[in-house]
C-alpha cells in the first residue's frame, strides 16, 4: 500500500495554499482540498468565502470537517515521500511560482470587484443616512424657529394686555385724583350712581405691579434642548449602523485559543483552551518567561500582524473582567500600567460596575445595556481595535493607533470577590468546526 501511494504524483497530496503535504485536510463543496489551518487563515483575510483554487463563491460559510481518508493518505505519503532530483525540484518550483502568481492576479482582480461593490454600497448608505439626518435637522430647526416665534407672539399679546391694564389703572387713578382735589370743582349734575362709581376705585385696592415682570431672555436652552433631541436621533442611527457593522465583521471571525504557558498561576485554563477562570489557590505550573507573574492575565496563542480578525468572549454576569489585544512584547513580570503606551488596548468592567477604556487617564464608558458577550475586532492595517456588545451590536469603544508588533488577544477574568466573580471568561466563537 505504501509503495502504491509513493507512486502517485505529489500534487495530489499538496495544499495549494502552503505548497506542502496536507495537514488536517478539509474538502469544500467544489471538491478542492486544503489544510484546515491554511483555509481558515485564508478566509479570515478575505471578505468573501470562495475557493482559493477555482474561485467558486459560497453563499454561506461551509462546515469544515477533516477528510479522514485524505488525511491518512497524506500521512502515509509523507512517510514514504520519494526523493526528487535537484533539477526536477527546481523545474517544479518555478512552474508552481508561475501558477501561484497567475492565481494571485486573478484573486486581485476578483477582490477589486468586490471592493468596488463595497465602496458603492457604503457611498449609497452614507448618502441615505446623511440625507435623512440633514432633513431631520432642518425639520428640527424649523420647529425650533416656529416655537420661538409663537412664544414671541404670545409674549407680545401678554405685554399688550398688561399695558392696557396699566393704562386703565392710570386713567382711573387720574379720575380719583380729580375727585379728591378740593380745588377742582365737582359737577353737581353728576348722578349719585356716577359719583359712587368713581369713588369705588381706591389705590390700595389696585394690582401690585412690583411682582409683574417680563423675562428679557426667554429662550435660554431652547436650541440646546432641540439639539439634544437631535443627538438622541443620531444615537439611534449610530446604534443601527453599529449593529449592521458588527454583522459584517463577523466574517473575519478567527479561531482563538488560550495559551496556558502565559497564564498567571492563579488562573485555570480549560483543556479545550476556550475558558479561563480565577482560582483561590496557586496552580502548580512550570516557570516560563512568557507567563504573567503578578497580575492574573492570560494571552491567546494566536498572534496577528496583518488583516482583520474578530472573536467573541462570553462575560455573562461577571462583575470584573478585562479584554482586548496586547503587543506580543509586553512586560509580563512585575508591576506595569495597562494602557496603549505600554502595548495594551483593552476595555474593563470594574467591580463597582463601571466600564472603562484603559487609556491614560482612563476613559469612562456609558453603556445602556450590560453586555453578556463582548466582540473584539482588530483591524491591524487601519490601526483600530473595536469592541461591541455582541448581542445588540452596539459599539462600545474603538482605540486608534499604529501597530508595529504582533498582537495577541488578551484576557483577564478578574478577582474572585468572595466567589461573586468565579465564573470563567469563555471564548464563544470559533471559525471552524471539525
From TrEMBL:
Residues 15-55 form the RING-type domain. Pfam families: PRY, SPRY, TRIM_CC, zf-RING_UBOX. GO terms for molecular function: zinc ion binding. It comes from Dicentrarchus labrax. PANTHER family: E3 UBIQUITIN-PROTEIN LIGASE TRIM (PTHR24103). This is Bloodthirsty-related gene family, member 2. Keywords: Metal-binding, Zinc, Zinc-finger. Residues 173-204 are annotated as: Disordered. Residues 236-431 form the B30.2/SPRY domain. The lineage of its organism: Eukaryota, Metazoa, Chordata, Craniata, Vertebrata. The keyword Cell membrane does not apply. The keyword DNA damage does not apply.
Amino acid at each position: 500500500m505504501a509503495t502504491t501511494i509513493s507512486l502517485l504524483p505529489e500534487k495530489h497530496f499538496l495544499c495549494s495554499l502552503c505548497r506542502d503535504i496536507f495537514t488536517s485536510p478539509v474538502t469544500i463543496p467544489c471538491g478542492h482540498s486544503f489544510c484546515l489551518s491554511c483555509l481558515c487563515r485564508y478566509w479570515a483575510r478575505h471578505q468573501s468565502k470562495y475557493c482559493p483554487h477555482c474561485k467558486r463563491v459560497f453563499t454561506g460559510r461551509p462546515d469544515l470537517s477533516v477528510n479522514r481518508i485524505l488525511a491518512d493518505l497524506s500521512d502515509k505519503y509523507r512517510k514514504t515521500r520519494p526523493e526528487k532530483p535537484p533539477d526536477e525540484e527546481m523545474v517544479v518550483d518555478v512552474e508552481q511560482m508561475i501558477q501561484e502568481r497567475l492565481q494571485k492576479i486573478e484573486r486581485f482582480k476578483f477582490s477589486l470587484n468586490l471592493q468596488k461593490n463595497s465602496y458603492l454600497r457604503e457611498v449609497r448608505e452614507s448618502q441615505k443616512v446623511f440625507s435623512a439626518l440633514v432633513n431631520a435637522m432642518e425639520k428640527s430647526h424649523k420647529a425650533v424657529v416656529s416655537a420661538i416665534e409663537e412664544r414671541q407672539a404670545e409674549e407680545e399679546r401678554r405685554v399688550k394686555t398688561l399695558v392696557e391694564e396699566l393704562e386703565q389703572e392710570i386713567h382711573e387713578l387720574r379720575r380719583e385724583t380729580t375727585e379728591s382735589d378740593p380745588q377742582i370743582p365737582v359737577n353737581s349734575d353728576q348722578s349719585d350712581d356716577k359719583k359712587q362709581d368713581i369713588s369705588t376705585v381706591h389705590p390700595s385696592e389696585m394690582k401690585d405691579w412690583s411682582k409683574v415682570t417680563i423675562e428679557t431672555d426667554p429662550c435660554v436652552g431652547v436650541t440646546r434642548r432641540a439639539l439634544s433631541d437631535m443627538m438622541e436621533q443620531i444615537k439611534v442611527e449610530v446604534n443601527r449602523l453599529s449593529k449592521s457593522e458588527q454583522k459584517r465583521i463577523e466574517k473575519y471571525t478567527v479561531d482563538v485559543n488560550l495559551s496556558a504557558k502565559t497564564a498567571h498561576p492563579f488562573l485555570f485554563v480549560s483543556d479545550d483552551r476556550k475558558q479561563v477562570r480565577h482560582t483561590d489557590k496557586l496552580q502548580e505550573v512550570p516557570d516560563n518567561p512568557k507567563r504573567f507573574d503578578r497580575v492574573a492575565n492570560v494571552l491567546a496563542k494566536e498572534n496577528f500582524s496583518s488583516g482583520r480578525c474578530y472573536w467573541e468572549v462570553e462575560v455573562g454576569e461577571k462583575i470584573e473582567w478585562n479584554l482586548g489585544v496586547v503587543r506580543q512584547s509586553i512586560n509580563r513580570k512585575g508591576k506595569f500600567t495597562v494602557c496603549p503606551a505600554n502595548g495594551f488596548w483593552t476595555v474593563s468592567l470594574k467591580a463597582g460596575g463601571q466600564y472603562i477604556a484603559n487609556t491614560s487617564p482612563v476613559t469612562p464608558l456609558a453603556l445602556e445595556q450590560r453586555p453578556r458577550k463582548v466582540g473584539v475586532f482588530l483591524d491591524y492595517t487601519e490601526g483600530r481595535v473595536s469592541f461591541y456588545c455582541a448581542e445588540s451590536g452596539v459599539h462600545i469603544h474603538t482605540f486608534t493607533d499604529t501597530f508595529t508588533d504582533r498582537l495577541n488577544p488578551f484576557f483577564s477574568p478578574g478577582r474572585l470577590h468572595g466567589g461573586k466573580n468565579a465564573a470563567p471568561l469563555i471564548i464563544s466563537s470559533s471559525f471552524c468546526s471539525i
